[in-house]
Fold this protein.
Amino acid sequence: MSPSVVLHKMKGESRKVRGRSTVPHDDSVSEDQSNQSQRYDDNEEEGFRELPPEEQRCVNAKLFLMREGSEVDGQNLYNHLSTLLTKILVEKSDDALNKLEDESKDFKREKFTYKEPFIKDNPGRTPSEVLAHAQWQMMKTACGDPKFIPNESFDLPDEDEEDIYRLIPNLMKQALFFEQAGVGLPREEFIRITTAMRELVEKWPIETLRFWGKILGTRKNYYVVEAEFKDGEYESDLSDDEGDEDKSSNDKIEDSMIFDDESTTVTDEIKPFYKPPPRIPCESMGTGLNKHVYFVCNEPGLPWIRLPHINPAQIVAARKIRRFFTGDLGEHIVSHPPFPGLEKNLLRAQIARISAATTVSPIGYFRFDDNEEEEDAEESGSNGRNTCIIDQEFEGMPLRDLCDPTGQTWCHHMQSVLPQGRNTWFNPMEGKSGEGGEEDSDEEERNEPDEPEPEVGPPLLTPVSEDQPVHDSPAWIPRISSRLVPEFAVAMLQSNTWPGSWTFGAERGRYFTSLYIGWGQKNLGGAFEPEIPPDVMEEFPSGPEITEADDPSPEEESAFKAALADKEFDAEFGEDQAEEETSDVDD
Amino acid sequence: MDSEGLHLNIDYVGSSGIILSPEQKAALQTSLVILKNSGKFHRVYFWGKILGVKDDYFIAQGVGRDEMENRKTFYSKDCVHWGLLPPATKAMREQSKLAQGRFTGDPSYEFEHTEQKKSEDGEEAGEEETITIKEEDRLSSVIAEIDEDVKIVPRSAFIKTPDGKINANRSFEGLSVSESAKLCSYMHFRDAICLQEKSLLQKANLDKAIDFMDTLEEDIPKGSWSLQFERGSGLVTLRSLLWLGYVFYHVPGTHMYGSCYVGNGEKNLDLPFML
């Protein structure tokens, strides 16, 4: 308010100082001002009255100046000019005209207020921050509170104490050996994986743990860890029992639809003889292919997800399709033949196949248990031994033997997967006879051909040189890791059937492990051939009742009738003739 | 991948399983410097590794100022001694496609491919023609094919001067995070094939100095590249699904990028089934 007050005072001065105009444009107005202001004083109490034209112009001018500027910050031209003129008259400098624009600009700048609020939105976390936080959290829990007192000794874990963290394998030692051969992941990743595995041992009743490897996918990758649960802990595993039940109910629905559908115009004697192939049950948890439990995560630091158990149908289907993994466990697999499951099932199936085919050890490290009881030996009789134990008296073998190019010094210590999809043979006939099931089951059994022969895989602990070669190249490629320092090198075994699977053997074969880094695809040797759709099903057995015959044409019909009439005529005539003949003979 | 700083940059492709042992790094650091001097190259790139049965081949490429022409390829089995590979001609490349199976590791090995030649009347008794393919030739052809099919660079990393020369862009600052998530920011480092077929309307928006190569968006089949962000958004990795084992990395916001191939040297012809 002060500028306008000053102006008012100045107006007062102008009354005395004639010729000095405060309103810039009209001199005639200023002369009359003194008279009119007096008149105002007189008539203030009267309220609104019409203004004479000069006053009108004056008031209009002032109102125009007082109009709010385009910026809504209380700036108007009137105030700005009054401030400016006040400053000039107070300073009374000689240079006022030159500095006029600058001072005007300064005033404007001072008046400028920042419109936006000072409280800004927090920008969302970038993906690196999210990941970094997850990993930092993981590392924080692992290393505990920081200790600032330098001389205090750290709480080193007692060597004899039972520490669940001892189950985590010494990945750094493995990383060192793998790196010597030019294989594997950068060492920092191994550290992150080790730290992430702590979460697993804390949550699950694990007996052994191994870093299985990394499977690359198109959108995300999988880090896979293999674990064995303690005995008796497998039952607490819920996994996908629901999935299995759904599948079995689906099968039942299909069967009933074929047999009980009344809308088909099939007579009772003729029934289609389609029988779905017998469902082979998966191995019970803790045995065979389901002995190991696998956990995956997309990045170390993110939570681990347990993969479901494997069932034979999935393995059989996985053999027939060839697919990249996308990185999402719940992704649907659209393929031919249709894969019974989601991506997590396919992942589990591929992991099972890779493990069964590429878990190797130096010959002599494992041996069969001689103390096995006879009953056990009989049960596993036709398949060979199922289990092997570590040979405590293994002396190791020199590096030259381990790198033997024929591969005779390494052997498989995990059972291979039979064509049926399991480790142990399951006889579908035994399963059938047990079922009370549908009425037709008895009939079908009679028509069944001979019992299928049990499938036998190669026995455990066979050397890898016996593996089927891929095209012209051998199945396994042993190599020595270093050329410059062969004295201290390690032996590397590279798989050709599953490219990406590496095993090293060090310390005379006493320390070895395998790792898989790849896309999860088998080396087929040639091009992939998708399965051809099966033949079109014959619905009914062909027989005289249902074979179509053409309707006879009119000529055929009349010929047939004529022949029939002839026959009848002949039959009658033939009798008379016969009588006549016999009578003739008598005469 | 540039040979200078190789031992640091190889970490960027480590997440795809590509690492070099300390011994190999040491040998490469010295031998690539010698290679650069003896060949008078402007730059030497460590191209990658082709795995064979008995031995692996390490491949390096030396280039002059113009990076698309005058590329010389060298191979080595122990990272110490390098040998020059013959440049791949069209005929050589056609023949090499007939050789099947993995590389053996012996450069003088000869692959044999027998073809039944039917006589023109369609008689069954045909002549057997055996074509031998030397492993060196096959190696050279495979490398040329990989370079043509999948070698990529970020957009605006190279500039075409008005006289047709292709130079590295010195003021390349890298792609932003959002740009590096798009496939159209990466281009094939080869003479453009699809570019000429584009309509004038599409070409109007392109900058002739930068957009003189095909982008990845036109690759068939769609989805033959896997683009992933590692370390959150700190590193972008592109893996080719056509040639399994080719990895390209780029750190968004910086000028660091490079690529490497470690694999069998076999094209993934089953790709359409696998997507």
